Amino acid sequence: MAYAMVAEEPGKSNVFKKVSIEVPKPKKGEVLIRQTAIGVNFIDVYQRSGLYPAPGGYPAILGNEGAGVVQATGAGVTGFRPGDRVAYTMPGGAYATHRVIAADKVVKIPNAVSDEDAAASMLKGLTAQYLIHDCYKAKAGETVLFHAAAGGVGLIAGQWLKAKGVTAIGTAGGKEKCALARRHGYAKCIDYTKQDFVEEMRKITKGNGVPAVYDSVGKTTYPGSLKCLQKFGMFVSFGQSSGMIEDFKLADLSANGSLFCTRPTLFHFIAERKELERRARMLFKAIASGEVKIMVNQTFALDKVKQAHDALEGRKTTGQTVLKVE
Ligand code: NDP
Questions:
Q1: Is 216 in the pocket of ligand 1 (CB under 6 A)?
Q2: Is the domain 3-121+296-324 a CATH 3.90.180.10 member?
Q3: Is 317 in the pocket of ligand 1 (CB under 6 A)?
Q4: What is the CATH T-level fold of the domain 140-263, as seen in this structure?
Q5: Cα–Cα distance for residue pair 273/285, rounded to 1 Å
């Protein structure tokens, strides 16, 4: 049966309802994908709760990354044909057995990469890719701080930073998460639920601070993150898993050392087709070579998306979370 998990309205995880759907027909420029695996992301939580509006409003089929097999192509599609294994991130609409999507948002999955890994990494992996290669380009020999190191983006970033010769210091909630982060590229990991990470960073860097902090936690880490930076350092604020930063002042940047600050979003880094292809090529190469291992540590059936959201929101997950479509 073809079905979608529909968020009827913004709210808690119980807003999801299993709804039968007609297998959609691809229009001009679109492909129809029979999905095999769907990545779950924190942005899905924001869109479900209403912190970010669901594009197109509610009821909404959420979900922003997935993989599967092309079943049909619409008029004018030249790069794909039925049977191709493909993956995508954005636009939403992933929580379904089948979906149509513009062909220019889709990339082919190389043989060396599984559907599950592709589905788990198109959003999280491309985010790690642009953060560390473009947004603040971390250089070999540098030390940087990356919050939520044991999470989906965090575990990918740690391995990639290490491969680039960068010393990554992570933060994570709890001893086990810290140990996991250390096994995935982080030279050190601070348990920020128990330790004062600013104080620990001072000790680790001998008071020098770091040139960049990648912060997706937001509200609870933001003031401390600024204190971990060197003069002219870069505060990369790319998420708010603990809540929105509400009290940011430009003066905070001067007070903490003439800092720079950016609030990037993946969307802008892959808006052009050639940028999507280039970044996806880099990501798949890193996965295929073993430089970056995708750690799908939680899988759920598509119709158990509520449980997947509960786990992610409840800080119960590590690495990547995937919904499987049987
Ligand atoms: P994660 O797997 O990293 O999950 C979020 C983690 O944040 C949790 O596991 C938890 O780790 C930590 N956290 C700290 N405080 C809280 C809290 N109060 N509630 C819940 N979690 C908390 O998620 P993703 O990998 O999907 O995404 C990571 C972040 O990156 C998100 O904030 C997301 O919005 C952002 N993002 C931004 C993008 C962009 O382009 N700007 C693109 C993709 C993701 P711990 O227990 O170790 O603290």
A1: yes
A2: yes
A3: yes
A4: Rossmann fold (3.40.50)
A5: 18
Q: Which residues of 174-210 are buried (b: 16+ CB within 10 A; e: fewer)?
A: eeebbebbbebbbbbbbbbeeeebbebbeebbeeebb
Would you say 5 and 302 are in contact if contact means Cβ atoms under 8 Å apart?
yes
How far, in Å, from the CA of 148 to the mean position of ligand 1? 6
Mean pLDDT, rounded, for 64-90: 97
Residue ranges per structural domain of the chain: 3-121+296-324, 140-263
Q: Provide the mean pLDDT of the chain.
A: 97
pLDDT digits (tens, 9 = 90+) for 111-157: 999 999 999 999 999 999 999 999 999 999 999 999 999 999 999 99
**What does the pLDDT read at residue 35?**
98
pLDDT band for 308, please (50, 70, 90 cuts): very high
The single-letter code of the amino acid at 283 is: L
Of 240, 302, 239, nearest in space to 266 by CA: 239
The two tokens of residue 46 are: 């924001």
- Please report the atom of ligand 1 found closest to the CA of residue 265: 40
pLDDT of residue 140: 98
Task: Give pTM, 2 decimals.
Answer: 0.97
pLDDT at 147: 98
Please state, in angstroms and rounded to a whole number, the distance separating the CA atoms of residues 210 and 236. 12
**Confidence band, pLDDT 50/70/90 cuts, at residue 326:** confident
Cα–Cα distance measured from residue 173 to residue 148, given in angstroms and rounded to the nearest whole number = 8
Identify the pLDDT of residue 254. 98
**How far does residue 154's CA lie from ligand 1's centre (Å)?**
8
Q: How many residues does the chain have?
A: 326
In terms of C-beta density within 10 A (0-12 exposed, 13-18 middle, 19 or more buried), how is residue 38 classed? Answer: buried
Atom of ligand 1 nearest to the CA of 193: 48
Distance from residue 68's CA to the centre of ligand 1 (Å): 25
Q: Examine domains 3-121+296-324 and 140-263 and report if their fold is the same.
A: no
Q: How far apart are CA 200 and CA 319, in angstroms?
A: 24
